[in-house]
Amino acid sequence: MTRVLLTGGSGFIAVHVLEALLKQGHSVVTSVRSETKAQMLRDTFPDASKDRLDFVIVDDIARPGAFDEAVKSDPPFDWAIHTASPFHFNVTDTKKDLLDPAIIGTTGVLKAINENAPSVKRVWLTNGPQVITSSFASIFSPTIGNRPGYTYSEKDWNPITEEEAIQNPPNAYRASKTFAEKAAWDFVEKEKPASDQLQMCPPLVFGPIHPKLQTLDTLNTSNQRIRDMMLGKMQDEIPPSGVHIWIDVRDLALAHVRAAERDEAQGKRFFVTAGYYSNSELADCLKELSPGLEGKIAKKGGEFPEGGYFDFDNSRTKETLGVEFRSLKEMVKDTIPTLKAIGA
After folding, report:
1. What is the rounded CA–CA span in Å between residue 136 and residue 132?
2. Which of 75, 182, 208, 338 is the most exposed place for a label (fewest CB within 10 A)?
């Protein structure tokens, strides 16, 4: 049985990764900020015994040495998946609230593993066996615009600067993902750790929530637009979509597990997206699947931009990881009851 360290286990993406790992028979220790979060996860997975699911408290991921003890385990860890990083714009200090947790948290995990957990073979970063969760924010160049005819792939990097990063929360978020991922690759280049590393770069992440872990006020940023449509907050006009590509959180979670299990995935960056979507299409799905919402959601707005939009290449994810992506309609169908369960 593979032993896995998963950081930030109560987060929207992380809890689905946790669920996928448990389904595949792995043993997981996840870091959480408090014992309250740990108990919420125990309640979410009541059938998971302590040898299958255990916890370690890391109250501040930006604190130096935060993960030094968390990476130690008996039996020792085989894999590490780092998903603990903020994605929200409700900040007062862009450096303290977004940049430091992402960058210091990521490099802190890598240093801790390198120095204290020689058994770890792979690390993921969910940005980004290490898997780190990164983001499409580290790939996309928003200042260039929609770029019709251009194809984004794993080769692209957001050119955002440190000066631009501190101008506003959206810039700080994009910079946090970009700088954290680059710091991780620089760490590998300089320190040459024994573990392999790979990065996951998803765009907007939608999908079902675990009601015991979230409230209407604590939803992940992407799902908030579904919540707002269900609550009648878009009756006058549907707002622009922003980035027009997405992925179902369950497909992203599966991609994490597949990447850990496949040798050919190691040392690579994965642009994981199901394809295009618009807020208008999202609204149409909601109205079709839940007819009572017809009068709560506007009939205009949220369409694809005139003049075209960039292309994308997700062939590495499909070919290397074998992920088959859910449709937008299936995602909405499965998400509606979970949001209703918390009051939407």
Report:
1. 13
2. 75
